[in-house]
Design goal:
Belongs to the thymidylate kinase family. There is one protein chain. The chain has 717 residues and is mostly helical. It has 3 domains: 239 residues, MFS general substrate transporter like domains (Growth Hormone, Chain: A); 199 residues, Growth Hormone, Chain: A; 209 residues, P-loop containing nucleotide triphosphate hydrolases (Rossmann fold), CATH 3.40.50.300. The chain is 70% helix and 5% strand. The chain has 25 helices and 7 strands. It has a 5-stranded parallel sheet, sandwiched between helices. Helix 3 runs antiparallel to helix 15 and helix 13 packs antiparallel against helix 14. The protein is elongated and about 110 Å long. Bound molecules: adenosine-5'-triphosphate and ligand LXEULUCI. Adenosine-5'-triphosphate binds next to helix 18, helix 23 and helix 25.
Length: 717
């Protein structure tokens, strides 16, 4: 899989500019920004407004709290059906109708207040209207989320999500809070403190919220008709009953490993986040810090979120988004553990920033994966489940953790007589961190698209711009033996002897070589080795030519023969490139390795017979053939020395796969040793470490690739 929506080689800013050039998305982003600003304003204003309608601190607190609670209620009651709307009906009209209704409902709250209704009536209506607005929002969000992937190319989905998430959760809430406070001051300043009720900032904010929804409805209806166009055919959508579509959605989530992993991971992350929020006050106190520390920790989480969403893709670059998602959850959860052990505020702030960064990256990767990899016809339902589930998990986690901490938070558990005190807040954080790590690892396991590729090496390779690649899926029932060594080591001699022996046992044997085993290879061979006439290729061009020969050789000769069960014996393979172009030409060995691995799709030999010979000896054998030296044979002695030691180093790094023989021994002795080793393989095929058949739909890789041989692949979307 390519990283869904990965940004490739573009810088973050360039990727975002390119996404904004897509007209329907740009329009949607602008109105969503305005609407999100209005929503945040509305959220703050409705609550403040409701509190302002009653007197007495208890009543004010109850009014404020009940409005917030009412916003969460619809998700529990009506949530499960919301996604069906997004998948069943035209998403553009779903969004438009929802926004028109929200426009009316938002406007109705300050309108009722203007009629002179009593505070109690206004608060009750505000609660009912908020409940209805939230219910409508439940249908609007999956419709919008499911529509976005149809507006932009998949490769730009991540940038689009970055932009939307930063706008919705970073810019607009801060702007809304600032605007509300500036509005409040200005209105009070202008009216000298005698603010008429219609000009109350909370009322003005509600009007803004209302009209921002009207604007969204109009722009979506008349300016982004593409939302309707991208959707699955209407007949297909309405053929099934709603109940059937509802159960289909759940079945899809249960049975699809990617979605299961995503849902599990997202819920785990939100549970962890909820516990951090629920315990934050007590945690700040356990650090011996007061309210200021509490706010600092909260700020740190938001800074981390912004860093994760804004910079995450630039850091991990082309890494598989499935892997990035699981790793981000593990990072966030491990950082919760840091919080559990924090002994100083500075340590806690670092932990909180990392929690935020991990959560932000997981959120971005998860949203992008859902948008890019879930089919259009079920996308709305999947988004709805995530949306509702996260709300539920968050509320439960906050409620339960604050309850538990409230019961035991002020106490300290003293372990035996050791004098070690452990606050229950920290124990809870510890449990949350551990559970989060478990959820992250489980999600990773369910979704991993590079099974068998070492995780940390892949991460490090990705950060450096060269993610490791899984081997191409293929099932070999043959044996792949390669002869390597310097010039005149006796490779052709040994290869011929082995082939003859195996053919004598009636085995299917394919003798081949690099470069030059195919017609294309012959031409490449003459380009790299002929000394007469033609201009010599530069070192990088030489490396590419050998890789091109290898790619064609593997695809047309080696793999087909291995698939049919033949013993393939090749005179030189990847190690020659590492030794000659890497050590000999002093090109970066990692890059040469990357190139070869890409060319071969990760195919490695079962056995490499390295014939080690002193270059003096080898070159003098070649000379005695009186055929003249080719371009590489004509290289300096120092060059051939470097080649020799590079071969020996490669063999030392992976001794199981190599048979190193002293090539100055008599040819018959060497042939005997080679035959013995090859017979071992043939007698005991279980000992062969070539690619095995896949064990399931996702295990399409060679599990035995060593770290050194797994090299980067530039993923393209
Ligand atoms: N063990 C050995 N002892 C002495 N001479 C050998 C031995 N093996 C091969 N030779 C001789 O050395 C020469 C080179 O051998 P061969 O062509 O097999 O080597 P090679 O590694 O394939 O060479 P190249 O690097 O040119 O492909 C030949 O003349 C061969 O007869
Ligand atoms: C595969 C491969 C080969 N070379 C060099 C090594 C030799 O000098 C020639 C091949 O000649 P031979 O007589 O067939 O052994 O090419 C290389 O530099 N890089 C490679 O990948």
């Amino acid at each position: 899989m390519s990283p869904a929506g990965g940004q490739g080689d573009r810088s973050g800013a360039a990727a975002i500019r390119s996404v904004l050039r897509i007209r329907p998305f740009r329009r949607l982003w602008i109105v969503l920004g305005a609407a999100s600003f209005g929503d945040w304003l509305g959220l703050l204003a409705t609550s403040v407004f409701a509190a302002a309608q009653v007197s007495g601190s208890t009543a004010k607190g109850a009014a404020f709290g009940s409005l917030i609670a009412v916003r969460l209620l619809p998700a529990l009651v009506l949530g499960p059906l919301a996604g069906v709307f997004a998948d069943r009906f035209d998403r553009r009209w779903t969004m438009v109708i929802c926004d028109l209704l929200r426009f009316l409902l938002f406007a109705s709250i300050p309108l009722l207040a203007l009629t002179g209704a009593s505070g109690g009536v206004v608060v009750s209506w505000a609660a009912i209207a908020t409940f209805l607005i939230e219910t409508i929002t439940l249908m609007w969000i999956p419709a919008k989320e499911a529509a976005v992937p149809n507006l932009i190319p998949r490769a730009r989905l991540e940038s689009a999500n970055q932009l939307t998430l930063i706008t919705t959760y970073g810019l607009t809430p801060v702007l809304a809070a600032l605007s509300l406070s500036v509005l409040d001051r200005s209105v009070r300043g202008l009216t000298g403190g005698e603010v008429p009720s219609w000009a109350e900032p909370a009322q003005l904010a509600l009007w803004f919220n209302s009209f921002s929804r009207l604007a969204t409805a109009l722009v979506v209806a008349f300016g982004i008709k593409e939302i309707s166009q991208g959707q699955t055919d209407e007949r297909e959508r309405t053929e099934q009953s709603m109940m059937h579509q509802f159960s289909e959605g759940w079945k899809f989530i249960r049975q699809t490993p990617l979605v299961r992993g995503l849902v599990l991971g997202i819920f785990g992350a939100f549970a962890g986040g909820g516990i951090v929020i629920g315990t934050a006050k007590f945690f700040a106190a356990s650090l011996g810090a007061g309210d200021a520390a509490f706010y600092l920790l909260f700020g740190a989480i938001f800074i981390g979120l912004a860093v994760g969403i804004g910079l995450g893709p630039m850091i991990v670059r082309e890494m598989s988004r499935r892997r990035w998602f699981g790793m981000s959850i593990v990072l966030a959860s491990a950082s919760v553990l840091v919080l559990a052990f924090a002994i100083h505020l500075s340590m806690a702030i670092v932990g909180a920033i990392l929690v935020g960064a991990g959560a932000g990256m997981a959120f971005l990767a998860g949203t992008t994966l859902l948008g890019g990899e879930v089919a259009d016809e079920v996308r709305g339902r999947v988004f709805a489940v995530v949306q509702i589930g996260t709300r539920l998990v968050l509320i439960l986690a906050i409620a339960l953790s604050s309850l538990l901490v409230g019961v035991g938070g002020s106490r300290k558990l003293t372990i035996a007589d050791l004098g070690v005190s452990v606050s229950s807040t920290r124990l809870l954080l510890l449990a949350a961190g551990a559970a989060g790590i478990f959820a992250g690892i489980s999600a990773f396991g369910q979704m991993d698209d590079k099974k068998g590729v070492p995780v940390l090496a892949d991460l490090w390779g990705s950060i450096r711009g060269r993610p490791l690649m899984p081997a191409e899926p293929f099932v070999s029932s043959g044996l792949f033996v390669v002869f390597e060594g310097g010039e005149g080591a006796g490779k052709s001699t040994q290869l011929a002897a082995l082939a003859e022996r195996l053919r004598g046992e009636s085995r299917d044997v394919v003798v081949t070589r690099e470069p030059g085993a195919t017609a294309v290879g012959e031409r490449i061979r003459s380009l790299v080795l002929d000394t007469a006439g033609a201009e010599a290729p530069s070192p990088r061009a030489e490396a590419l030519l050998y890789a091109a020969d290898r790619a064609h050789h593997v695809a047309t000769v080696v793999r087909p023969a291995l698939i049919r069960g033949a013993v393939v014996i090749s005179d030189r393979y990847v190690d020659s490139s590492l030794a000659y172009q890497g050590a000999g030409r002093t090109l970066p060995v990692q890059e040469v390795s990357w190139l070869s691995s890409w060319a071969t799709g990760g195919l490695k030999p079962d056995l490499v017979v390295l014939l080690d010979v002193d270059p003096h000896t080898g070159l003098s054998r070649v000379e005695s053939r009186n055929e003249g030296a080719d371009r590489l044979e004509a290289e300096s002695l120092a060059f051939h020395e470097r080649v020799r030691y590079a071969f020996l180093d490669l063999a030392a790094a992976d001794p199981k796969r190599y048979l190193v023989l002293d090539a100055s021994r008599p040819a018959e002795e060497i042939a005997e040793a080679v035959a013995r080793r090859v017979e071992e393989f043939l007698v005991d095929p279980g000992g062969i470490v070539h690619p095995r058949p896949a064990h399931g739909p996702d295990t399409t890789v060679q599990p035995e690739l060593s770290d050194a041989e797994l090299v980067g692949l530039e993923h393209r979307t």
